[in-house]
């Protein structure tokens, strides 16, 4: 686990025991933390070959996608359901780690790990394990691709009794074309309009063109990666230089005006409620009065003289306060916290500690 909790280049340090001169194949996706130059050079010095999966293929070629992560999700959900039924309580942040560790040790077993590499055809090598149809990108509708699926025209199956009316030059004319041909012509017109109005854009620069589907520890690929990072850093420096030179004065003026407005608003609006951390009202602290002090006595609990019990205020979970009214004095009391009574049903009588008779105690 890294210090920030996110994946970076510092967490890859575990190396299994190997014989001298034996290479290790490490298959990763194209995350930026996996293509750092320092990491690649470190892996090359340790005889580790880093192979980056082709872009948009991790759902098919990643070994742990189906055989490990899928069972892990199902096993974790089953453990959560059993925990809820057994303890009759919700799952808190303190329970997640224990449940996840149990599911992890049960799902990521050697058989599932081996099956992941076998299913993707990585080891043993099988080039036909993943059919190419799974990696075909989506394409727009074309009449040629669906020409074989067009039903034959029959008079009995026709849904329209006459031709279609179209508008040309503000005059309504009747067209003899079929509904299918009409829609195909409209689609082609939309395509041509989009192609004509499409602006010429510069080719997109992204790291996937350099590392996708390649072993980045190879000298040539490592050289291309270094040149890409160098070009990217130089372009970023140019942009920062332009923005700092052109807009620094306006930013300073804006920051000064913001600080002045904040100072004036803080001096004039001290009495108005201000947001604070941990559900604390800053204006209440400044005046020395709590929110409960401003309430009437009838709105507070007649036992603890508070609107919310201390146990709920100090709790990290969302819990609703339950109240019960005294039948004698009509004051309200916190159930479960300020009285030993936990449930009051219809028809039950309740008396607070001030109205209880000696025999009731």
From TrEMBL:
Residues 248-261 have a biased composition (Basic residues). Residues 166-176 have a biased composition (Low complexity). Residues 146-176, 242-281 are annotated as: Disordered. Pfam families: DDE_1. This is DDE-1 domain-containing protein. InterPro entries: DDE_SF_endonuclease_dom, Znf_FYVE_PHD. Residues 19-89 form the DDE-1 domain. Residues 267-281 have a biased composition (Polar residues).
């Amino acid at each position: 686990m890294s210090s920030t909790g996110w994946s970076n280049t510092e967490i890859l340090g575990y190396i299994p025991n190997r014989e001298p001169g034996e290479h290790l194949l490490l298959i990763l996706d194209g995350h930026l933390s996996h293509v750092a130059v320092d990491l690649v050079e470190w892996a090359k010095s340790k005889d580790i070959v880093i192979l980056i999966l082709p872009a948009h293929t991790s759902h098919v070629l990643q070994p742990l996608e189906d055989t490990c992560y899928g069972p892990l999700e199902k096993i974790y959900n089953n453990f959560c359901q059993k925990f809820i039924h057994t303890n009759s309580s919700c799952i808190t942040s303190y329970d997640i780690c224990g449940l996840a560790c149990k599911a992890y040790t049960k799902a990521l077993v050697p058989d599932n790990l081996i099956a992941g590499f076998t299913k993707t055809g990585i080891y043993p090598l099988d080039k036909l394990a993943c059919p190419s149809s799974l990696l075909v990108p989506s394409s727009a509708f074309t009449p040629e691709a669906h020409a074989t699926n067009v039903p034959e025209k029959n008079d009995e199956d026709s849904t329209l009794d006459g031709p279609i009316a179209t508008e040309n030059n503000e005059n309504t004319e009747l067209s003899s074309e079929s509904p299918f041909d009409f829609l195909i012509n409209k689609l082609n017109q939309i395509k041509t309009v989009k192609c004509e109005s499409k602006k010429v854009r510069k080719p997109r620069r992204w790291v996937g063109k350099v590392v996708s589907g390649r072993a980045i520890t190879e000298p040539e690929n490592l050289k291309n990666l270094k040149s890409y990072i160098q070009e990217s850093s130089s372009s970023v420096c140019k942009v920062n230089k332009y923005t700092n030179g052109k807009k620094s004065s306006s930013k300073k003026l804006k920051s000064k005006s913001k600080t002045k407005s904040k100072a004036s608003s803080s001096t004039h609006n001290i009495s108005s409620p201000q947001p604070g951390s941990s559900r604390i009202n800053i204006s209440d602290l400044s005046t020395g009065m709590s929110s409960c002090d401003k309430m009437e006595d009838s709105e507070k609990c007649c036992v603890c003289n508070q609107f919310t019990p201390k146990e709920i205020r100090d709790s990290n979970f969302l819990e609703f306060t339950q109240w019960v009214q005294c039948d004698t004095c009509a004051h309200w009391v916190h159930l479960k916290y300020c009285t030993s009574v936990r449930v009051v049903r219809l028809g039950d009588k309740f008396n607070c500690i001030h109205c209880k008779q000696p025999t009731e105690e």
